[in-house]
Design goal:
The chain is of the alpha/beta class. It has a single domain, classed as Rossmann fold, CATH 3.40.50.150. About 30% of the residues lie in helices and about 25% in strands. It starts with 8 loop residues before the first helix and ends with a strand. Keywords: Methyltransferase, S-adenosyl-L-methionine, Transferase, tRNA processing. GO terms for molecular function: tRNA (guanine(46)-N7)-methyltransferase activity. Pfam families: Methyltransf_4.
Length: about 220
C-alpha cells in the first residue's frame, strides 16, 4: 500500500535546507556518468573527515545515533521517498546533529554522485528483501548493487548488513561470495551473540520483540 503523502511536505522539505541533497539528473540511464554530477562532499560538510553511508535510512533512527557516536565522521544517508526522508532530516535538525546529510534518490545512481573510493563503510539495515525471485535485482545485495559499492568503497572499506529475513540473508551471502567480497563476523542470532555496540533500529526492535533472530554480516573486498 502506498504511503499517504504528508501534509505540507514541500514546505517541510524546504525547511530542512541543506540537510537533504537531491540526486536528480537529466539522464535516466544510471550507467551513464558525468563528472559534473559528482558532489564535493568535503565542501558539503566543511571538512575532510572520513565518510560512511547508510542506504535505506528510513526515519533516521540508526544514522542519528551513529553520528552522535562518531562525531568526527561524516555520514550520508540515502532514502528514495521524500515522505520518509523528511522525518529523518527533521530529527537531525531537532537533535542538533551536524555530521549527517541525507540524499533523496535511487541507490542505483549513487556512484553518479559520490566520488569513487570515498566511503569507508556502507550500512544496509533491514533492506526490503523483495521475496519474489522476479524482483531479485531490486535487492540491495544483488550483484548489480555490489558492483556500485565496489566503486564507492575506499581501500579497506566494508559493508555491514543486518536483516530479519533468513532467505534474504542467504541470498546476500551468495551474492557477496560470487562478486569478489570476503565475509567475516557472520551472526545468525545477533542479539544472543555477545556483539557489542549494536545500534538497534526501529524495525530491529520490532522483530526482536517477536522472538525473531537478527542476522548480521560484514563484507569486504577481497584482494
Amino acid at each position: 500500500m502506498r504511503m499517504r503523502r504528508k501534509s505540507n511536505l514541500e514546505e517541510r522539505l524546504a525547511a530542512c535546507g541543506d540537510k537533504i541533497l537531491y540526486l536528480d539528473r537529466d539522464v535516466l540511464d544510471f550507467s551513464v556518468k558525468d563528472d559534473r554530477d559528482l558532489l564535493d562532499i568535503a565542501s558539503i560538510f566543511g571538512n575532510d573527515n572520513p565518510v560512511e553511508l547508510e542506504i535505506g535510512c528510513g526515519k533516521g533512527q540508526f544514522i542519528c545515533e551513529l553520528a552522535k557516536r562518531q562525531p568526527n565522521v561524516n555520514h550520508l544517508a540515502v532514502e528514495v521517498s521524500s515522505n520518509v526522508i523528511v522525518d529523518a532530516a527533521e530529527a537531525v535538525i531537532a537533535q542538533g546533529i551536524e555530521n549527517v546529510r541525507f540524499m533523496r534518490g535511487n541507490a542505483r545512481y549513487l556512484d553518479c554522485f559520490i566520488p569513487a573510493g570515498l566511503i569507508r563503510r556502507i550500512y544496509l539495515n533491514f533492506s526490503c528483501p523483495y521475496p519474489k525471485n522476479t524482483y531479485a535485482n531490486h535487492r540491495l545485495t544483488h550483484g548489480e548493487f555490489l558492483e556500485i559499492y565496489k566503486r564507492l568503497l575506499a581501500e579497506g572499506g566494508e559493508i555491514h548488513q543486518k536483516t530479519d529475513n533468513m532467505h534474504f540473508f542467504e541470498f546476500s551471502i551468495e551474492q557477496f561470495s560470487e562478486n569478489g567480497y570476503g565475509l567475516k563476523n557472520i551472526s545468525l542470532d545477533l542479539h544472543n551473540s555477545g556483539f557489542e555496540d549494536n545500534i538497534v533500529t526501529e524495525y530491529e526492535k520490532r522483530f526482536s520483540d517477536m522472538g525473531m533472530p537478527i542476522y548480521r554480516l560484514e563484507a569486504y573486498l577481497r584482494k
